[in-house]
Write a structure and sequence with these properties.
Length: 205
């Protein structure tokens, strides 16, 4: 984060547990990058995810896998902003911190899947968060009707739904396949990430 802080900036944020990061994450990010052409595109792994059970032993591995996955994509930048802050990784706190770091920052564009966006009203300080970001929503369900989310617009959430077709890849499914040694997940995970998983014996139990 070494850009001139006086520059008016457009930033995209992709926050998640990334356990592990996979090709559907990268596919969505590339699609949005090409469309919005932001000055910065940050992948932000959640150090202590507030909405999910997490394995503390995996915390540093998740960050390292994001770094490896992005090493071949200079347009994307891994961020440890939530690893440098104590406590749960609330999105609101992260966004506030970004605005402090970049005073001339335009509204943040925040990538989120439809599955997570449906729960947005349960997020910490959601009434303030919705004033700070524009949600870029990509489809994470096989059968999705955009009108199902209209009620969130009525409640003041600024968002647009992307037309990128759904692709059935999920971190949960990948972890299960790796644990049970069933199926081939190599086509769903960046090569360097797969090598890291095998080298460190991750998701074996």
């Amino acid at each position: 984060m070494d850009s001139n802080i006086n520059q008016v900036m457009k930033i995209c944020v992709f926050q998640g547990t990334f356990n592990p990061i996979h090709n559907a994450h990268l596919r969505a990010a590339k699609y949005i990058f090409d469309k919005l052409k932001p000055d910065k595109f940050l992948f932000i792994p959640a150090c202590i995810p507030p909405h999910k059970d997490y394995d503390s032993k995996m915390t540093i591995h998740r960050l390292e896998m994001v770094k490896l996955a992005l090493s071949e994509y200079p347009e994307f930048e891994p961020s440890d902003i939530e690893y440098r802050r104590s406590g749960k990784s609330y999105t609101y706190n992260t966004i506030i911190e970004l605005y402090k770091m970049f005073p001339k920052l335009e509204k943040v564009y925040f990538l989120i899947g439809t599955d997570a966006f449906r729960k947005i009203e349960t997020w910490y300080n959601t009434e303030e968060l919705k004033k700070l970001v524009k949600f870029i929503v990509f489809i994470r369900e096989e059968k999705f009707n955009p009108s199902e989310l209209n009620y969130l617009k009525d409640k003041g959430y600024d968002f647009e739904i992307q037309k990128l077709p759904f692709k059935d890849i999920s971190s949960t499914k990948i972890r299960e396949l790796l644990k049970n040694r069933k199926g081939n997940v190599k086509s769903d995970i960046p090569e360097k990430v797969m090598e890291y998983i095998e080298k460190n014996g991750l998701y074996n139990s």
